[in-house]
Amino acid sequence: MRVTGTLDPAERRGITLVTGVIGSDTHIVGNRILSMALEEAGYAIVALGALTPADEFVKAAIETAADGIMVSSLYGQGELDCRGFRDLCVEAGLDDILLYVGGNLVVGKTPWEVAEKRFLDMGFDRAFPPGTRTREVVEALDRDFAAHARGGRTPDS
Amino acid sequence: MSGDARAALLIDFGSTYTKLRAVDLERAEIVGAGQGPSTVATDVAVGMEAALADLETRIGGLPDFAHRLATSSAAGGLRMVTVGLVKELTAEAARIAALGAGARLVGAYAYRLTAGDVAEIEALDPDILLLAGGTDGGNDEVIRHNAGRLAACGIVCPVVVAGNREATDGISERLASAGKTAVPAGNVMPEFNVLDIEPARAAIRRIFIDRIVHAKGIDRAAEAFDAVLMPTPEAVMEGARLLADGAGGRDGLGPLLVVDIGGATTDVHSVATGEPTVEGAIQRGLPEPYVKRTVEGDLGMRHNALSIVEAAGPDALARDAGLSGDRLREIVAAVAGDVERLPRTDEERAVDRALARAATRIAVGRHAGRTETVYTAMGPAIAQHGKDLTGLAAVVGTGGALVHDGDPAGILAEARADPDDPESLRPRAPRLYLDREYLLYACGLLATVEPEAALTLGLSHMHPVAGEERRNVRSRVAG
Lengths: 157, 479
Fold this sequence. Notes:
The complex is a heterodimer.
Chain A: H1 9-12, E1 16-21, H2 29-41, E2 44-47, H3 54-63, E3 68-73, H4 78-82, H5 85-91, E4 98-103, H6 112-121, E5 126-128, H7 134-149
Parallel strand pairs in A: 1-2, 1-3, 3-4, 4-5
Helix pairs in contact in A: 2-7
Chain B: E1 7-13, E2 17-24, E3 29-37, H1 44-59, E4 67-72, E5 79-83, H2 90-100, E6 104-109, H3 115-124, E7 128-131, H4 141-151, E8 159-161, H5 165-177, E9 182-184, H6 198-215, E10 227-231, H7 232-245, E11 256-261, E12 266-271, E13 282-284, E14 291-296, H8 305-312, H9 314-321, H10 325-336, H11 346-367, E15 370-376, E16 379-385, E17 394-398, H12 400-403, H13 408-412, E18 431-434, H14 440-446, H15 451-461, E19 463-465
Parallel strand pairs in B: 1-4, 4-10, 5-6, 5-7, 7-8, 8-9, 11-17, 13-16, 17-18
Antiparallel strand pairs in B: 1-2, 2-3, 11-12, 12-14, 15-16, 18-19
Helix pairs in contact in B: 4-5, 7-14, 8-9, 8-11, 9-10, 9-11, 14-15
């Protein structure tokens, strides 16, 4: 099924995304699958891997002039690790960078909508629940970058 | 030596002395050494003549040398400034490239250069500036900004442009149109976390040979040598590489560490991949160069004797020297003010040994990587920063402090792993060797033309020294 706003691989080629697993989190598999899928879709990927402190995402994004950062958190402490992430980006001059977060972001019985809102309030543009398909992420990225090209960072969801 | 044997002359134009080593290439043995003052401030040829006369007296006539190769650390060494973008990324890659080229790093800058930074760089007046920033396809705005600042400032040195390749041509043109010499080279970090320092190193060496040798006045002695090939620290590093890797199908000593304790700095070179040996350790940070050089600017036996005391702690150092704290301070102050002084009394020898032991321990501690235990929900995990040197086969010591001491093994043993500091990845059980004849630089030079003879020379002249565990009181020092 084709989604409106979907970019073709040639359009994705000039877009750089930083990926990694934040904090003291060694769960690399999902993040690696995501990185491979994004690369296959045509995006340029800078993969930082597991155990990545928040400031390393930002430093990598500066050096590579990245357009977006994809933060994974699987071990239940994502909310703590991700606090202040947008502020760190703004501080480093990356005001417009697109920020996604995904993984096991819900702890206990909190409904997804509540957890999602927490991450959006922190300044992430999108948050993804467990079980998200890589295709959905690619489609969201396409929509957001297409919207950005039209002059706005805010996602159209 | 007989008149018809092939021989090589290896010259080191040092900061204090011009040193010569004559090598018989057939037997791969040293036949003699000579020394003269370093007269680079007036006419380097005068000191060179004195050194040759000294050598001639010692070996009874000078042969017709097949090679006459030189290194130089005279006139302040190869003074470099590096500029990059993120401090831990391209700015660090630029630093590694400059150190790997044998430079003396006098300034290192990251992010956008400010007017104040540029004024500092002008005052530093480096011999070469290395400008990096951005991966290929990454950030190009900051390196362009920095190039603009440099183009508009008063520096006259060549600028090696080794950043985001999309910016290189434009930057080189801009610098050239401002009357600067721009030398484009490959990006020191073409992709995120990929180091590629060889092109920048080659560009630095080319500039050193073509321009710096002349600018420092070393070519005044041009009749006495064929070529000045590299800065002395790079020759030591090439000597270390040869000793470790071997040449012409002959094995070397295997992965090793060289500790060079000097009057102003302590240099450490490692020739090893440094990959994790701790099971499950995850490597963090920049990839490590196979041949890595670090320079500790605060650890020197004379110019920086006081800062060794500071780094090691005066009490621990006094205990190691077997002196009172007051007596230690008096002696250190005396030797620090007299940079060419050799120890004269037993007390001074004890202080020198304690200084050398502390310099070795701290410098190797900083050079070697560390592990860190990270506690995760799944249990503890090990992260490794820097090189794992635990399995190294050998530690080679060079420099006057070791050669003049009666117990060089007691100093070199400080390079070993410390059971009290298990997270430091220093060599566990290396064999210890002493470069007693100061030949490492000569091996590095000779390796450029006759690597097999250079290897034989190096292997036969690195003297094994017995490791000695004679200390009961271990001073605890933060690396």
